[in-house]
UniProtKB/TrEMBL annotation:
GO CC entries: cytosol
Molecular function via GO: eukaryotic initiation factor eIF2 binding; GDP-dissociation inhibitor activity; GTP binding; translation initiation factor activity
Organism: Absidia glauca (Pin mould)
Name by which UniProt lists this protein: W2 domain-containing protein
Lineage of the organism: Eukaryota, Fungi, Fungi incertae sedis, Mucoromycota, Mucoromycotina
Spans annotated as Disordered: 144-177
Residue intervals of the W2 domain: 233-396
Domain of life: Eukaryota
Keyword line: GTP-binding, Initiation factor, Nucleotide-binding, Protein biosynthesis
Family statement drawn from the similarity comment of this UniProt entry: Belongs to the eIF-2-beta/eIF-5 family.
InterPro entries (alphabetical): ARM-type_fold, IF2/IF5, Transl_init_fac_IF2/IF5_dom, Transl_init_fac_IF2/IF5_N, Transl_init_fac_IF2/IF5_Zn-bd, W2_domain
GO biological process, one term: formation of cytoplasmic translation initiation complex
Length: 399
């Protein structure tokens, strides 16, 4: 899908903030004619806004009724509207409800305070009030966005297709704010800022409210140590954090998990001394897969077989799936757990006995016990099928 700059007035091809070009599809005829925006969900992810916001904005600007079906990701505007016209209207939405009024960067989160909409910029730290005169503001106040999570920020980074390490491509006509940001980044680079500290800084740029910090600590505390580790391995936990950070950086920089080759992943694992370790399997699953894991597994079968060499490794893969589904993509992947496990089964990565043993009872080894219970409950259709298949195979062997 073709991408364009979030700010279309910026002509720099290296501008870091990208989004998919809006597509439109005309359906129906006569009084029932309507325009469907098939990629509204992808556009909304790039802008870090709920898809209903820009769709409702179209309705306000065009004086048309709209329909938002979040479950099926189907967004409709009544009437016939071409893609270029909708793209121009979307520019207005971005200017009013996405771009920071101070630095004109789209790294903002919406915060509702006393029925006012504040735009909290994670690039320059400014907080500005959105245009409360617009009709959409009333809808936003009544339907506030969910609090931005670490995973949502990762999606926004991936969707905007960062093109270089310094994050260049700022508009040269925008005054002193962007110059200050670039200078800060150059100074940090000159001081030898490591990849790990850069990632740490990105974490600190997130929501630091007491509730958000407590939630992140709760998620990390499930394992007892780092974001990728557990307390049953004697190896240096830092190796796995570095491995995970490297994988995430590669995926973010390419905006495509498949672009990170199997060979480069294996070489990095060997360099860090985690290749052949069962915990590396959990990190691998968390970092190279996303919402499309069911379609990604077949493409990574060879890589998984290289990493998975024993029962502990197989259990770690399932632990990675638990974390991916239960902590990162719960809404979109929970119902797809049986399909995900079937793909692992078809890839011949996990033994039948390991599947059955994993599904026997929830544990708190990789996620909170209630999350583990929910994932394994969702996996019940597959687990029942694999148990039946194993019993029939045993009977055939006995005969």
């Amino acid at each position: 899908m073709a991408t364009i700059n979030v700010r279309r007035d910026v002509k720099d091809s290296f501008y870091r903030y990208k989004m998919p070009r809006l597509l439109s599809k005309i359906e129906g005829k006569g009084n029932g004619i309507k325009t469907v925006v098939p990629n509204m969900a992808e556009i909304a992810r790039a802008l870090s806004r709920p898809p209903s916001y820009p769709t409702k904005y179209f309705g306000c600007e065009l004086g048309a009724q709209v329909k938002c079906d979040d479950k099926n990701e189907r967004y409709i505007v009544n009437g016939e509207h071409d893609a270029e016209r909708l793209q121009t209207i979307l520019d207005g939405f971005i200017s009013k409800f996405v771009l920071c009024a101070s630095c004109r960067n789209p790294e903002t989160d919406l915060i509702i305070k006393n029925d006012d909409i504040m735009m909290d910029c994670k690039a320059c730290g400014a907080q500005n009030m959105a245009d409360m005169r617009h009709k959409l503001s009333t809808y936003i106040v009544k339907n506030p966005p969910a609090q931005a999570s670490k995973n949502q920020r990762k999606q926004r980074k991936a969707a905007t297709a960062q093109t270089n390490d310094l994050g260049g491509g700022f508009d040269d006509n925008e005054g002193g704010s962007d110059d200050d940001i670039i200078s800060q980044r150059i100074n940090k680079e000159a001081a030898g800022l490591t990849m790990q500290s850069q990632l740490a800084q990105e974490d600190w740029s997130e929501d630091t409210s007491a509730a958000a910090v407590a939630q992140r600590l709760k998620e990390l505390a499930v394992k007892g140590v780092g974001a990728f580790g557990d307390d049953n391995d004697d190896d240096d936990e830092n190796k796995y954090d570095l491995f995970g950070a490297w994988l995430e950086e590669q995926v973010d920089n390419t905006n495509d998990s498949n672009a990170v080759t199997d060979v480069s992943i294996i070489l990095k694992a060997q360099e860090l001394g985690v290749y052949g370790k069962y915990k590396a399997c959990q990190v691998l699953v968390q970092c190279i897969f996303d919402e499309s894991i069911a379609t990604q597994i077949p493409k990574r079968t060879k890589l998984l077989r290289k990493f998975v060499t024993g029962e502990k490794h197989q259990k770690a893969v399932l632990g990675g799936v638990e974390r991916l589904v239960g902590l990162e993509y719960k809404d979109s992947l929970m119902k797809k757990v049986p399909a995900i496990l079937m793909k692992l089964y078809d890839a011949d990565v996990i033994d039948d006995e390991v599947f059955i043993k994993w599904g026997e009872k929830p544990t708190k080894k990789y996620v909170a016990k209630d999350v583990s219970k929910e994932v394994k409950k969702a996996a019940k259709p597959f687990l029942e099928w694999i148990a039946t298949a194993s019993e029939e195979e045993s009977e055939e062997e006995s005969d």
